[in-house]
Amino acid sequence: MMAESLITLAKPSLGMGAGLLAGIPEDLFARFAEGRDGRLQANHPAWIIGHLAIYPHAALSLLGDDPAAHDGAASDLWQSLFSRTSTCEDDPAGTRYPPKDELVAAWTGETTRLMERLVGVSDEALSAPQPVERWKERMPRVYDSFAFLVGAHAMFHLGQLSTWRRVAGLGRAG
Q1: pLDDT digits (tens, 9 = 90+) for 114-144
Q2: Angle formed at CA 70 by CA 121 and CA 78, multiple of 5 degrees
Q3: Is residue 82 pLDDT above 60, yes or no?
Q4: pLDDT of residue 65
Q5: Where are the alpha helices (DSSP H) in 22-140?
Q6: What span, in angstroms and rounded, lies between the C-alpha atoms of 143 and 157?
Q7: What is the average pLDDT across 11-33?
Q8: Which of 39, 41, 134, 168 gives the lowest tally of CB atoms within 10 Å of its CB?
């Protein structure tokens, strides 16, 4: 039952993300948005989607999966570019961040893999105590971590993407 609720929480982010990503050209994907009042120095689509792509590994490690067993979003390079301690940088040359298609494929693929892995996970496994020390106070159970990562965390960053679109003059998602 708990795993099903997590899958239900994760699905809307993929649909919302697809709508928000539609129409963003590659040459703007890793750029700070230029608005009427100047440059918005805030997370751009490349950082947002790369950031969301690395967290399914963190969540799955709570179930005993080895994040090092996967390429791409679990790599040291992606961790350095997209972790919570990284800094989003404007990339006018398009050389710092992976291309849009690679980032989007990683995020959708890893989120889908997470949902598939959750099928059949027991309530007992998800009710286990939080093993990550820095998360214990805010998220005491494994379930709480999953709910945060696939729900609030994903939607928070997709909200940033929505704002970036508006400032960049791309309008609201279709």
Answers
A1: 999 999 999 999 999 999 899 999 999 999 9
A2: 115
A3: yes
A4: 81
A5: 45-61, 76-82, 100-118, 123-126
A6: 20
A7: 96
A8: 134
Question: From CA 107, how far away is CA 105, in angstroms rounded?
Answer: 6
Model confidence at 167: pLDDT above 90: yes
Asked if residues 143 and 131 have their Cβ atoms less than 8 Å apart, the reply is no
Q: In b/e form, how buried is each residue of 77-115, taking b as 16+ CB within 10 angstroms?
A: ebeebbeeeeebeebeeeeebbebebbbbbbbebbebbb
DSSP state of 141: B
Q: With beta carbons less than 8 A apart as the criterion, state whether 94 and 100 touch.
A: no
Task: Report the pLDDT value the prediction gives residue 171, as an integer from 0 to 100.
Answer: 86
| Closest by CA position to 52, among listed 160, 170, 173 | 160
| Euclidean distance between CA atoms 127 and 142, whole angstroms | 6
Show the tokens assigned to 85: 């301690």
> How is the chain split among helix, strand and coil, in percent rounded to 5?
60, 5, 35
Q: Which residues contact 171 (CB under 8 A, 6 or more apart)?
A: 165
